[in-house]
Every structure is written in C-alpha cells, then in structure tokens.
C-alpha cells in the first residue's frame, strides 16, 4: 500500500482561512480519488486531542495522522532551516510552502516532496502579505528551488512571475483550485436573508483595505453608482478602517454594508443575490472569488491582473488596472455601470460565468496531483 502524506496542519489555523479551505477541499478530493493501492495520511503539528479529532471528522477516509512533536510555530521554524527529515519518508504533498524540505535522493529512496506556491507576492507585493513575513516565504521558496521534486502553482501567471525569481525548470505544474462543494444556497435562505438585511439590489465585493485589494478605488467608484456596496470579510488593514475610507472617498455611508466574515451558507446566499460581483484586486495568484461568483451566475467585473484574467477567460468584464487610484476608480465605475445598465451584457456574463466555473473542480485538481506524484 502506498501512502500519500499531506501537510494538513493549516486546516485549523484561523489566521489562514483561505489556505485552510484550500487544504481541506484538496485533501478531501485526494482521499476520494485515491488509486486502489493508495491511501492518504495527514501530517500535523503537536496539537490538543480535540484538534486531532476535528481533523479526522472533517476528513473522513483519512488513513491516519502523523503527529509532530513540535507545535505549529516551532515546526514552521524548524522546517524553514531544514532541521528535519521527511515524516516516515515516502510521498509528501504540501498544499503550501510549509513542508519538510531537505536533500534527498529520490531515485535511491523513493522519497518525494511536492510543495504549492500560491502567488509571487513575497517579491511583487511584500508589504501586502499578512500572516508569515515575506522573508519566510522567500526563504521557503529558495528551499523549494533546491529540494522540492515538483511545485504546484494555481495559474500560468504565477508560474511566469515565479520564473523571474526562482529557477524550477520543468518541475512546475499548473493545477488550479475550485469552488468548495460546501458553498451552496441553504434551504433556509429566506430566514437568512431577513437576518442579513440585504437590500434588494447591491454590488458585492470580498475586498479589504489592503492596498493590493483596491477597496478604496472601488469605494470611490461606487460613490458614483446609485447601488449599495456589500463588503464581505474584515475590511481593516493596519490602522486603516472602513469608516475612514468611506469618509475619504465620499461614498454615502448608508450605501456601504459591511457583513464581516460569513459562513458558507450565508456567503453562498450573498453571492446568489448580488447584481454584480467586483474583484478589483491589483494582483492575485488565482481567482477563487470570481469563480465562486461565476458558480452562482453572478456577473463579474474584474481587474485585468494576469491571474484573474486567466481564470476568468471571457466570462468577466475586465477593467484595466492603474496605479493611480482616481484613474482606476473611474474605470471601475464605468465597468460596474456597463454591467448594471445593460441587461444583455449581464445575462451574457452570467451564462459565461456559470460555464467557466465548471472548468474547475476539486476532483480534477486531485487527479492531477496524483498523476504528478506518479510522474516523478
């Protein structure tokens, strides 16, 4: 029996919600698509017993857990400096850069480690990275350059950007993510809608005040659009607050609705009711939020950031980015109005988006991961 060991430590880390969801969805799919002679095991840091049980509950079919003696922070530091051996050897798949990378002879031992690099932000936008520092990411990417047997990236755009900073040769494989299967409109939609107090018509975004996410230009743009803007997620960034941004950009305060973090059921409901979804980010590694909106048939206005444009293909109305917030705001305003005021455009984008969302699935991603491990 062959065991694929997946680093699932991030699933229960509240500071990395996006990575946690990616790791959980991919691991579930790897379990579901495992060849008949293969099983999936999880690698985790030293954690309380209730966290181990929660991981096993979330990942039915997991063959077991390899439990490190080190806590999460210590394990990350140790792995960064290479003070480790591969847990039990064999095949290791890391859904992030957190991986036990070390020198090894794959031909001699059969050991292999594949890591995932979700973006090139450590070099292109280091000041906009939250969580672990840009330095940690750069260090781990350099270790991956030396020791990883293969590298998964979500888009060709990320592959191209990384090639400017690290030489992975032919070890890079593009494998995108997908919409979580748990993101569905709930049966109690009417009750949830009443609790959320959403307006009948609104524009939706998941952006925060991180400058890369371009929420300020979007707020300025929406000041000239007579439709409320609904914001999902924590919009704050450092000392900047939504209240300050609203005051600075001139949008009427009553037209800005901040919902904070939502569970899957509420998020699905909000996506499904939005007139337009705006993804104004100046740089991303993937376009998951756009894909989520596509899945609900919601027309998408997106920046032309390379990864976002790649994921959207022809299913979104693309807006040219600008480093000048005022210029970018005007372009966003025109893009939103173009979709809001033209029913034919909105319908075309809705149909194209629904089709585009089906081009990405977790089953397909997992099968590609299994094939990658087989190929090396």
UniProtKB/TrEMBL annotation:
Biological processes, Gene Ontology terms: lipopolysaccharide biosynthetic process
Domain Glycosyltransferase subfamily 4-like N-terminal positions: 17-179
Alphabetized UniProt keyword annotations: Glycosyltransferase, Transferase
Superkingdom field: Bacteria
CDD domains from the UniProt entry: GT4_MtfB-like
UniProt keyword Chloroplast, yes or no: no
Domain Glycosyl transferase family residues, every copy: 199-353
Record has Transferase as a keyword: yes
A GO molecular function held by the record: glycosyltransferase activity
InterPro entries found in the cross-reference section: Glyco_trans_1, Glyco_trans_4-like_N
PANTHER family, per the entry: GLYCOSYLTRANSFERASE WBBK-RELATED
Protein name per its UniProtKB record: Glycosyltransferase family 4 protein
Biological classification of the source: Bacteria, Bacillati, Actinomycetota, Actinomycetes, Micrococcales
């Amino acid at each position: 029996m062959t065991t694929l060991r997946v680093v699932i430590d991030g699933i229960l880390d509240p500071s990395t919600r996006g990575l946690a969801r990616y790791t959980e969805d991919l691991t579930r799919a790897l379990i579901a698509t495992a060849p008949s002679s293969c099983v999936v095991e999880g690698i985790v840091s030293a954690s309380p017993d209730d966290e181990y049980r929660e991981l096993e509950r979330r990942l039915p079919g997991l063959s077991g857990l390899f439990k490190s003696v080190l806590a999460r922070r210590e394990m990350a530091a140790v792995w960064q400096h290479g003070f480790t051996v591969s847990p039990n050897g064999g095949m290791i798949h890391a859904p992030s850069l957190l991986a036990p990378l070390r020198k090894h002879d794959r031909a001699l031992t059969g050991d292999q480690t594949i890591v995932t690099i979700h973006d090139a932000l450590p070099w292109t936008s280091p000041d906009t990275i939250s969580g672990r520092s840009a330095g940690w990411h750069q260090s781990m990417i350099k270790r991956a350059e030396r020791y990883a047997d293969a590298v998964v990236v979500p888009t060709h755009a990320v592959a191209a950007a990384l090639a400017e900073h690290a030489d992975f040769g032919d070890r890079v494989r593009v494998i995108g993510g997908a919409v979580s299967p748990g993101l569905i409109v709930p049966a109690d939609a009417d009750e949830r809608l009443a609790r959320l107090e959403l307006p009948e018509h609104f524009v939706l975004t998941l952006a925060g005040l991180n400058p890369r996410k371009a929420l300020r230009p979007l707020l300025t743009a929406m000041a000239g659009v007579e439709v409320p803007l609904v914001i999902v997620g924590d919009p704050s960034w450092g000392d900047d607050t939504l209240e300050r941004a609203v005051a600075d950009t001139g949008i009427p305060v009553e037209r800005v609705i901040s919902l904070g973090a939502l569970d899957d059921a509420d998020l699905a409901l909000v996506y499904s009711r939005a007139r337009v979804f705006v993804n104004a980010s100046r740089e991303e590694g993937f376009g998951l939020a756009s894909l989520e909106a596509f899945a609900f048939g919601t027309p998408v206005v997106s920046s032309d950031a390379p990864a976002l444009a790649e994921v959207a293909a022809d299913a979104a109305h693309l807006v040219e980015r600008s480093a000048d917030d005022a210029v970018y705001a005007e372009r966003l305003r025109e893009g939103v109005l173009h979709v809001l005021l033209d029913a034919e455009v909105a319908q075309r984008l809705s149909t194209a988006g629904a089709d585009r969302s089906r081009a990405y699935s977790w089953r397909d991603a997992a099968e590609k991961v299994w094939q990658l491990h087989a190929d090396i």
